[in-house]
Write a structure and sequence with these properties.
Oligomer: single chain
Distance between the termini: 51 Å
Number of strands: 14
Helix content: 25-40%
Shape: globular
Length: 362
């Protein structure tokens, strides 16, 4: 059994695996740094070719170019502790053959075009889109596009804001889009898994990460050459829609015994050379919008990269996991899609979010 030791570098996640990186030390010494990464976030082949970081990130690591959805979770006030490494986000996965049959020659660029195209696709036994009623990550993007948010920080603390006019406009677009298919209003995208629904039925579109295509093709290999991708459309043609961005940040723990060496490893892994190599190897989005060209040759990843430039994260508060555990957003969505008054339900859900983010307030 390996003896535990203070970690020199960690990736913010559960389910970790370890690897070692060798960095130059003083003079000609070489130091071994233990690196902990999320399981399966980097291939074994990639790994073989392998405290406060505000100053380094501003001076050497291109802080102003990072994807905002990755940079924000690693920040505490003005200090940067987590350095963006790679990203992934949802795109629209679509059937090229069904688009062609409907006379649609190119993917939509705006929400208005998207709705119109989906209406054309939703006929003759086809579903224009399969969108489950409780896919709150997708709803979040529509809310952000309208200028709203799930919650906001005030002088008195955090407050749920699903009842704002902007957030209600985002929910209204979700309602109109979701109605152009047969997605269940009482379940999320995993119940049943939407990959299987897309593979088995006449479904023209789903909203998911491109990696889901592997599961689709496993179920129905005949679809391999008919699957395409485009960014979630935004309000205008020049800007893809906002999307929830997942991924990983790298941090140096306070109790490491090699802070200098660990910082060097962070700098190397998040720099252009290794970050683009990881993106190509694992089909991720690099940590900077300026590096998107490195993955332009892969259609699904290119669509992700376009959306990631407008990526967002959930509200930046350590109490947010309590919201996801209780998740009043899902119930709110189901009730609205079932015909309940959106404003009334949004106020109810916002009050619950406020309670969960500030249990001792008011």
């Amino acid at each position: 059994m390996r003896r535990r030791r203070p970690l020199a570098l960690v990736c913010v996640s559960a389910a970790l695996l370890s690897a070692c990186g060798v960095v130059p030390g003083v003079g000609h010494e070489r130091h071994t740094v233990t690196v902990w990464l999320m399981r399966n976030s980097a291939s074994k082949d990639f790994l073989r070719r392998l405290t406060d970081l505000t100053l380094e990130s501003m001076r050497d690591w291109g802080k102003d170019q990072w994807l905002p959805g990755l940079a924000e979770p690693g920040r505490d006030d003005s200090r940067q502790y987590g350095i963006p490494w790679y990203a992934a986000n949802r795109v629209v996965i679509y059937r090229k053959d069904l688009f062609a049959k409907a006379g649609i020659t190119s993917p939509p660029k705006t929400r208005k075009e998207w709705l119109a195209d989906t209406e054309k696709l939703d006929s003759g036994g086809r579903q224009g889109i399969y969108l489950a009623g409780q896919d709150w990550y997708t709803l979040s993007g529509f809310v952000w596009d309208e200028g709203g948010d799930l919650a906001e920080q005030t002088d008195a603390g955090w407050k749920g804001t699903l009842d704002s006019p902007a957030a209600l406009r985002g929910m209204d677009f979700y309602r109109r889009l979701q109605a152009l298919g047969k997605g269940p209003v009482h379940a999320d995208e995993e119940h049943p898994p939407q990959a299987g629904v897309f593979a088995d039925g006449e479904v023209a579109q789903i909203i998911a990460v491109p990696g889901l295509t592997q599961s689709i093709v496993q179920v129905n290999p005949r679809l391999k050459d008919d699957i395409g991708y485009f960014p979630v459309p935004g309000l205008t043609a020049g800007h893809p829609g906002a999307v929830f961005t997942g991924g990983s940040d790298l941090v140096v723990p306070q109790n490491t015994d090699r802070p200098y060496d660990a910082t060097a490893v962070v700098g190397a892994l998040t720099g252009a050379k290794w970050d683009t190599d990881l993106a190509r190897t694992m089909n991720y989005v690099p940590n900077k919008a300026t590096l998107a060209g490195a993955v332009a040759g892969e259609e699904g990843v290119a669509a992700m990269a376009a959306g990631a430039a407008r990526g967002r994260a959930t509200p930046h508060t350590p109490d947010w996991p309590a919201v996801e555990a209780d998740n009043p957003i899902k119930g709110y969505m189901t009730r609205v899609l079932g015909g309940a008054d959106p404003a009334t339900e949004a106020r109810r859900a916002s009050r619950r979010i406020t309670e969960l983010l500030a249990p001792n307030f008011g």
